[in-house]
Design brief:
It is built from twelve helices and 20 strands. It is of the alpha/beta class. α1 packs across α2 and α5 packs across α6. The longest helix is centred in the first third of the chain and has 17 residues. The protein is flat, with a radius of gyration of 23 Å. The two termini are 43 Å apart.
């Protein structure tokens, strides 16, 4: 966290405390005033506000739940984000800053013709990306999602060079071009893409890059907060942007977790219109160290692993199904698997049931490989392995919690 971040944080805390009644109530409830927050560690003293809590506050005190920190007549737009959450916008905002930074990283700029397939209806993403692209000197086709054949024709007619939207819709357009008899790589001018709003499997990225010659920037963010992290090289790690303060916090205590640990993505914005201080996104991520040579001084990276409600706490560590899928996927020889958590003798026991791909496989070697992969990805040691030959069933959960609390 840079010195400019601290200056911005001190400013936004004072501004929010003085102008947003909900923020004042949160700090007062924790017996805090803005000057009590002098370090990043001090920020942990402020309770996390979940999205569900934010929605409840808006319902109890409409329209903005006490978080609006400027006069209403200064607002230029009001959006409705998933939640549902009303979201006020007034002039320049950190959301637009994050979009500009992300578009710049993805290579967009003056002279580009960009197909914007993010939604323009109620949610802020489409319009905010549109405005930012135009400010950067690009020409925007306000497409949204739908009418794939028409969008492909417009890409061809206008020489579209850039795409923003979901990765699945991009692939749908590529496939539609093929159905229309067009060689996508030869006939269309698309070269740069910014995809977001849904997971992108490695195989899909590989197809975009290798088969269709596209540059791919994959961004993570939310409607309320803008873009938060990105990836341009592939892999799971995403670098954090510096347009807000992102913490990875224990979902139960709100305290920041250490390297290699999993926690909730908690964000503090510098938005004077709508100051969200320690908003819990509900997403789980792991703090990771970026690969050598792939980061700047002080740059942080995270791996997104899922949602808070799907995680199971084992011996003090949160374990998410996606973490296990990733870990097991590193070791060949597994058809299906299931983790089982029990608690004999007042200690969590972590068992992995494994259906091997070959009944003659070396079970000891397979267990050793799985143990190492899971320890690395989940920070939890597997106590024992059970190798089963019958199927676990299509409805078998990835993590089965059989602990009994008495």
């Amino acid at each position: 966290m840079t010195s400019s971040h601290f200056e911005q944080l001190h400013h936004i805390l004072r501004h929010a405390y003085d102008n947003a009644p909900a923020v004042k109530a949160i700090l007062d409830g924790a017996s805090l005033v803005p000057d009590d927050i002098q370090t990043l560690a001090d920020l942990d003293k402020i309770p996390v506000t979940s999205k569900d809590r934010l929605a409840a506050l808006q319902q109890a005190n409409p329209p903005f739940g006490g978080f609006l920190a400027v006069p209403f007549d200064q607002l230029e737009h009001v959006f409705l984000s998933p939640g549902p959450l009303y979201e006020p916008h007034a002039g320049d905002s950190p959301v637009l800053d994050s979009i500009r930074e992300m578009l710049t990283i993805a290579g967009f700029g003056s002279g580009d013709v960009v197909l914007n397939t993010f939604g323009y209806h109620l949610i802020p993403t489409g319009l905010a990306v549109d405005q930012t692209l135009r400010d950067m000197g690009a020409t925007v086709i306000a497409a949204g999602v739908g009418n794939a054949d028409l969008q492909v024709k417009m890409m061809l007619d206008f020489g579209v060079t850039g795409y923003v939207g979901t990765p699945s819709w991009l692939m749908a357009l590529i496939q539609k071009a093929g159905e229309m008899g067009l060689d996508f790589r030869e006939r269309l001018s698309l070269k740069k893409t910014l995809v977001s709003a849904e997971p992108m499997p490695p195989s899909l990225r590989q197809a975009f890059v290798e088969q269709y010659g596209l540059g791919v920037a994959n961004a993570y963010g939310t409607a309320e907060l803008g873009f938060l992290a990105y990836n341009t090289e592939g892999g799971l790690a995403m670098r954090l942007l510096e347009t807000s303060i992102v913490q990875i916090a224990n979902p139960e205590t709100g305290e920041s977790v250490g390297p290699g640990e999993v926690g909730e993505v908690v964000v503090t914005t510098f938005n004077e219109t709508y100051p969200l201080i320690r908003l819990g996104t509900g997403d789980l991520a792991m703090n990771v160290d970026p690969a050598p040579g792939q980061s700047r001084q002080g740059e942080r990276s995270v791996i997104l692993v899922g949602r808070v409600g799907d995680a199971v706490k084992v011996r003090g560590m949160f374990v998410h199904p996606n973490q296990l899928r990733f870990a097991v996927g590193q070791v060949p020889g597994v058809t299906r698997f299931q983790a089982v958590v029990t608690r004999p003798g007042n200690r969590d026991e972590f068992t992995l049931r494994v259906v091997p791909s070959d009944v003659s496989i070396d079970q000891e070697a397979l267990a050793a490989g799985l143990s190492k992969a899971i320890q690395s990805a989940c920070r939890v040691k597997v106590d024992r392995f059970e190798f089963v030959t019958e199927s676990l069933g299509e409805d078998a959960g990835i993590i089965l919690d059989e602990r009994v609390w008495e």
